[in-house]
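Bench log. Compound arrived from synthesis this morning; before running ITC I wanted a structural hypothesis for how magnesium ion sits in the protein. Inputs:
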Amino acid sequence: MLVLQLRELFLKKYRNYIDLELSFHPKLNLIVGPNAQGKTNILESIFLSCTGRSHRTPRDRELIQWGSEQAFIRARVEKQTGTSEIAIRLHAREKKKVLINQSPAARLGELMGHLNSVLFSPDDLKLIKEGPSERRRFMDMELSQIRPRYFYYLQQYNRILNHRNNLLKEIQKKPSLTSTLPVWNQQLAEAGSFIILQRMHFISSLQTIAQEIHSKITHGSETLTLEYKSSIPCNSGNIEKIRDNFLKILKARQDEDIESGLTGKGCHRDDIVFQINGMDVRTFGSQGQKRTTVLSLKLSELEFMFKETGEYPLLLLDDAMSELDTGRQEMLMEYIGKVQTFITLTDMNHLPVLKDRSKRVYRIYSGNAVLDESLSF
Ligand SMILES: Nc1ncnc2c1ncn2[C@@H]1O[C@H](COP(=O)(O)OP(=O)(O)OP(=O)(O)O)[C@@H](O)[C@H]1O
Ligand SMILES: [Mg+2]
């Protein structure tokens, strides 16, 4: 028995849906249709019900149907403790309203306790393909959610870094100011060593789960490793040592930093390295390997949330399967059997592994969804 289930979803004037009512299968839901018909819009509205935000845009206005003033989203959720209802009203000129069981929520954070989800979207491939700042953003977002102190230190760090960089530029014009640098170095190393240590722990526990999942999906043929790669020596895992190394490096690079007016080393330069069987995925990985790596990472997030809340979140897979071979698809489906899953795809025939499974299939056509009775059972 799955503990958390999205039973029904109602959309009014949301994106290209005028008035939509869907009821879902407890395990597997397929949302099938050609491009630009509204498949992702459905996943987006589910994600919105979980977090209060869209994963595609920070501007709620874009979610409201063109020519309308308001949009409504209502989700009926069933869990061990009973049913609950989440309702969101978006308005073109007013603040959005979130109601949980008919009572207004003071903060969006309250939604987290009612409905959680993990979403995979094609955009997540950026995590592998793009530069280190994407990967730092990933760590910072995850860690800030689970550790409020991390968020505090991160803000501190960025503030100090900014000050230090401004000071470096001033020193270029007025060298006597150099004597004020050590105070900033000390503070930067203080906050920075905390951040580095937290990120190292996070990546190492994520790797334990992700490695196991990745190995399952690839029938044991690929070993995924994640490594936190810092510009500050940190293998000791000891915060005082990391802080001392940080200080040493800032001192040693002082002239270079002054010349460039920038702090060249520190956790704002760090990265995560993904390897498969010892090979750098970013440089040498195939499309399918990159996709599998991100999926393994997302699925480890699922396990994380389970650990934190005792409940598996919903799994939303937007166009996740298209570059995976049948073997990988099969293993992925086997793995996700324990959570309620929503998958978008353009053609049922692309996923032969889903044919015989108990599921519900919705056909999407320009803002209309029709239950495909012949495939739903
Ligand atoms: N605010 C809005 N009002 C009305 N229609 C909108 C709005 N925002 C987006 N759309 C329409 O929604 C459609 C896109 O929906 P969606 O992104 O869900 O497509 P999709 O089925 O996931 O396509 P693909 O297979 O290409 O990913 C487009 O036709 C777009 O014009
Ligand atoms: Mg889409």
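What the model suggests: The first strand starts at residue 5 and ends at 14. The chain has a mean pLDDT of 93.
ITC booked for Thursday regardless.
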